[in-house]
Design brief:
The chain is globular, with a radius of gyration of 25 Å. The strands form six sheets. It has a four-stranded antiparallel β-sheet with strand order 3-2-1-24, with no helix packed on it. The chain has a four-stranded antiparallel β-sheet with strand order 4-5-6-7, with no helix packed on it. It has a four-stranded antiparallel β-sheet with strand order 8-9-10-11, with no helix packed on it. With 338 residues, it is mostly beta strands. It has one helix and 24 strands.
Length: 338
């Protein structure tokens, strides 16, 4: 039996359609795993022994560590608490101040809670700084967000004012970091806005500069501001000019995931953390990233910290306070409060 050309053509098209359907039924081929190393096998510096330091990070477990001479010498664990530790500062008297999203706590070396302020419902607190021995300043994310100064002994609100914000309804992403300057003003990173701004003690904006999703703004001794933003780290002068910058591509051997805070060290180097989102990403213990980097002004990495296993599993890094020399970060004033 002879088949006409039209019949043959229809048959071939039908066969191709059936084949395509069967191909669609097959699961897609798995993508090759990303096996690119997060960091070199051998890292620069002396690991845990490079500096004495305080360490904490936003993570499912609210833990703080003090490391000295390469060993963990003190830990604080808050398994019954809520939220994530976004800010932690060791004071000159040995007490620890932490902001963990739903509260601010002052903790003694024996781990006794000396003072606590719970964030009201619908608000969050991610940054705090002690003023002397008697007051704590913090930003309360909310609608509206507020800068507050509370007296530790009485719980009295000594000062408060609202902050402008990109989105008053989206409380979680408003603010993560603020620090008091040598002039008694407050340098604020507007995380959900495109700016870093400085406010006096009455809440008046006295300076600002554009920034891309800034997480942190640390005032420096030279009057400049060290800003951590989505693209990297920048030192900006009061004219808004970039005096120094570090992009992710400047450290190609270490994959930078999420930068949150950065500090200028007394030796002139810059220390930055490299945070891992433990809620959305499972750590690959065979290929973990570094948790912190110290770079020279020429952007050479002189220390890379990678400590993800017991007995020194430090977890994700948000804040690191170098403790090589005694210091009292509470020796500041905010307006007339000191």
């Amino acid at each position: 039996m002879k088949l006409c050309a039209w019949t043959i053509r229809c048959f071939l098209l039908f066969a191709l359609a059936i084949g395509a359907c069967r191909a669609e039924d097959k699961p897609p081929a798995p993508k090759p795993a990303d096996t690119a190393p997060m960091a070199p096998a051998v890292l620069p510096g002396n690991g845990l022994a490079q500096h004495d330091f305080l360490y904490a990070g936003e993570a499912k477990e609210r833990k703080v560590f003090i490391v000295k001479k390469g060993q963990i010498v003190w830990t604080y664990d808050d398994p019954a608490g809520k939220g994530e530790i976004s800010d932690a500062v060791l004071l000159g008297n040995g007490n620890l101040l932490i902001a963990h999203q739903y509260a601010v706590k002052l903790i003694a070396p024996d781990k006794k809670v000396l003072w606590n302020y719970d964030a009201p419902k619908g608000t969050e607190i991610h940054t705090a700084q002690a003023i002397g021995a008697d007051h704590v300043l913090f930003i309360q994310n909310g609608d509206p967000p507020m800068v507050k100064v509370i007296a530790i002994a009485t719980g009295e609100t000594k000062k408060e004012f609202p902050l402008p914000v990109g989105n008053a309804k989206s409380v979680h992403g408003q603010f993560r970091h603020a620090r008091i300057t040598a002039d008694g003003t407050l340098m604020v990173a507007h995380h959900d806005w495109t700016k870093v701004a400085e406010y006096d003690a009455s809440g008046k904006e006295v300076w600002s500069t554009p920034a891309k999703g800034p997480w942190a703004a640390n005032p420096l001794k030279n009057g400049n501001v060290l800003i951590v933003e989505s693209t990297g780290v920048r030192e900006v002068n009061r004219k808004g000019e970039t005096a120094w910058a570090l992009a992710r591509t400047d450290v190609p051997d270490c994959k930078l995931l999420n930068l949150q805070l950065a500090w200028r060290l007394p030796n002139g180097n810059t220390l930055l953390n490299n945070w891992v989102n433990s809620w959305q990403k499972q750590l690959d213990t065979a290929n973990p990233p570094v948790q912190a980097l110290e770079v020279t002004p020429e952007k050479k990495v002189v220390w890379a910290l990678r400590s993800w296993s017991d007995p020194a599993n430090l977890g994700p890094a948000t804040t690191i306070q170098i403790l090589d020399e005694p210091e009292a970060p509470e020796n500041v004033r905010f307006g007339d409060i000191k």
